[in-house]
Amino acid sequence: MIRPTEMLSAKTLADPRSRQARADLATFASDERMVQLCNLEAMDQIRRWRADFEPERVVPYATAEEKISGTAITADGAAFRSRKNWYGLKFKCQLARDGESVIGFEFLVGDPVAREKWDELSLPAVH
Fold first, then answer.
1. Where are the domains of the chain?
2. What does the alpha-carbon distance between residue 49 and residue 69 come to, in Å, rounded to a whole number?
3. What span, in angstroms and rounded, lies between the C-alpha atoms of 25 and 42?
4. Which of 46, 51, 67, 114 is the most interior residue, by most CB within 10 Å?
5. CB-CB contact of 56 with 46 (8 Å)
6. Cβ-based neighbours of 53, under 8 Å, separated by 6 or more
7. Residue 76: which residues within 8 A CB-CB, separation 6 or more?
């Protein structure tokens, strides 16, 4: 697992261009808000880890449901989309006690997901 030492999602959300994302997050129930914060952290960390990836979406339940325990989320069956392809992803995300910010994150990028599996896994085709 890759264990970054700097969390990135708070900085992304603080950017003025993220105004709509901040507004959207405020409308979500607590568990959904935590999942979305972790998805954002995943995209930011993958982008920083490898510049050739350009993550634009994360599905935390592609091959297995994500698990929420308090303020910790484990997604062993996640996937992310980058440059018109889907890739397997595992991550563990720890949020602050209030569930409003990411304080710990680790991830592992897997293999590309075969195109013929996208529909079965509810991974949207690239538009």
1. 9-117
2. 27
3. 16
4. 46
5. no
6. 46, 47, 82, 83, 87, 109
7. 64, 90
Are the beta carbons of 86 and 63 closer than 8 angstroms?
no
Quick one: tokens of 63?
Answer: 């091959």
CB atoms within 10 A of CB 115: 12
d(CA 86, CA 81): 4
Structure token digits, residue 81: 């989309």
**What is the distance between the alpha carbons of residues 110 and 65, in angstroms, rounded to a whole number?**
17
pLDDT digits (tens, 9 = 90+) for 30-84: 999 999 999 999 999 999 999 999 999 999 999 999 999 999 999 999 999 999 9
- Longest C-alpha distance within the chain, in Å? 40
**Ramachandran assignment for 104, one of left (phi > 0), alpha (psi -120 to 50 degrees), beta (any other):** beta
Q: Tell me the DSSP string of 32-93.
A: HHHHHHHHHHHHHHHHHH-TT--EEEEETTSSS--EEETTEEEEEEEEEEETTEEEEEEEEE
